Amino acid sequence: MIREIDAKGLACPKPVILTKKELDSMEGGSVRTVVDNVTARENLSKLAGSMGLEFSVEELGGTVFAVTILKSGEKEEERDEDIIIQKPDGGMVLVIQSDQMGKGDEELGKLLMKSFIYTVNETKPHPKAILFYNGGVKLTVKDSPVLDDLQDLLDAGVEIISCGTCLDFYNLKDSLAVGDISNMYTIYEKMQSGTNTITIG
Amino acid sequence: MIKMNEFGILTFQSTHHAMRAERILTEEGIITKTIPTPRDITLSCGLAIRIAIDDLEKVMELKRSGKLEYKELHHLQTVDGKRALRKLD
User: Fold this and answer.
1) Does some domain include residue A101?
2) Which of A112, A128, A184, B62 is the most exposed place for a label (fewest CB within 10 A)?
3) What distance separates the 2 farthest-apart alpha carbons in chain B?
C-alpha cells in the first residue's frame, strides 16, 4: 500500500507532521511525500532515520522531490535493539537557548558561552546532541566565535541541530555553517531521548 | 602518528582584564580563543586567552609597548594528550 501526500508549498514542519501521522496510522506500507524544497527533503530523510525506516528520494525536477518512506511491520522491533547498540557514550543532550551564558552583562555572557563550548569540546564523554534555538542559533552560523569547536564536536559524532524557525526569524537560514536544520519535533525527540538534558543560555 | 599542539596561554588579573585584552588583540589582528584557564596554571580568574604560537612575539611586544596588559604568558604543548606547560613571561 502506498499513500501519497502532496506537501508542496507547505511551511517547515508541516510535511514532516503529515508524513509522520500517515506512518503512525499504518501497520505497514509506504508513504510517498512530494515536497518542493531541500530542507523539507532533508527533514523527511531525518524522520525516516529517526524512526529506523528505509527511504528513497526521487528528483522530480528543480527543487521538487518525492521522498518515499517504507514501513514494514517487523522493522520496528529490530530498531529498538539497534538503538541500544548504537547509543554513544554519554547520553546527555545540551540545549543552548542563547548566544550568552546566563543573564547579566552581555559581553560577559558571550565570553562565558565561548568558554563553555570550548570546555564541552575538550571534555569526554561528549554529549550525544547539542540543540540550538532562539538566540542560540547565532552560534551555529557564519562568523560565530565557536564554529571551530562545534565543527570538532560534529566530526566526533555529536549531533548539532539548529532550530529552522529561529534561523529563519533572525534571517540566518543561508548562513548556517555547522550541523543540521531541524524543527520542534526533532528538538523535542532529542530532549526526550537524552538520559540527561541540560539547558544553557 | 604523533599528535602535537602548541599554543600560548595568557592569564589575567581579572575577568575585566581578560575582556579588555581580547578586544585589543582582536584589533591588532591576532586570532584569539577565550578558554577557561587551565587548572594547572591557576584556579583563580577563570578566563584565559589562547593564541597561536606564531603570535607569541607580537603579544610580548604589545605588552612591552604598554598597549596590552596580562598577568602571565605560558607556553602549552600537548603531545599525544600529554601536557607540558612552561611560563614564558
Assistant:
1) yes
2) A184
3) 42
CB contact under 8 A, B36 and A115: yes
Gap from A107 CA to chain B (nearest CA, Å) = 8
Asked which of A61, A82, A103 is the last residue of a domain, the reply is A82
State whether residue A119 sits within 8 Å of chain B by CB: yes
Name the pLDDT band for A37 (thresholds 50, 70, 90).
confident
Chain B interface test: which of A114, A122, A143 (most B C-beta within 10 Å): A114
Number of structural domains found in chain B: 1
Question: Where among A82, A114, A142 does a domain terminate?
Answer: A82
Question: What ipTM is given for this predicted complex?
Answer: 0.72
Name the nearest CA neighbour of A149 among A133, A171, A166, A127. Answer: A127
| Domain presence at residue A65 | yes
Give the pLDDT confidence of A139-186 residue by residue, as tens digits: 999 999 999 999 999 999 999 999 998 999 999 989 999 999 988 888
Task: Give the full edge-to-edge strand order of the sheet including A2-6.
Answer: A2-6, A29-35, A65-71, A54-59
| CATH number of the domain enclosing A152 | 3.40.1260.10
Cβ-defined contact of B33 to A108 (cutoff 8 Å): no
Report the distance separating Cα B48 and Cα B46, nearest Å: 7
- Put simply, whether A107 touches B (Cβ < 8 Å) is yes
With beta carbons less than 8 A apart as the criterion, state whether A52 and A83 touch.
Answer: yes
The model carries a pTM of 0.64
Q: Which residues pair with A31 in a beta bridge?
A: A3, A69
Tell me the chain B residues in contact with residue A118 when contact means C-beta distances shorter than 8 Å: 33-36
